[in-house]
Write a structure and sequence with these properties.
66 residues, mainly alpha, 0% strand, elongated
């Protein structure tokens, strides 16, 4: 499936936001810590590469690798 750069960026932002929300609301992280944990993780690096197809996965699946 081909997607545009704009669609990819939207999906990446959506997934990132959802993962951060789960860490804060369910795992008890402070917002700053959750943001730091996500953006410095290796999985975020993979999520940022559209070739991995990771952006098609659910936030909980992606979070399991953080």
């Amino acid at each position: 499936m081909n997607i545009t750069e704009k669609e990819f960026q939207y999906m990446k932002r959506y997934l990132t936001t959802e993962i951060i929300s789960i860490l804060v609301e369910e795992k008890g992280y402070k917002i700053e810590d959750a943001i730091d944990k996500v953006y410095t993780s290796q999985i975020y690096e993979k999520l940022s590469d559209p070739q991995t197809g990771l952006f098609f996965q659910s936030p909980r699946y992606i979070m399991s690798y953080i």
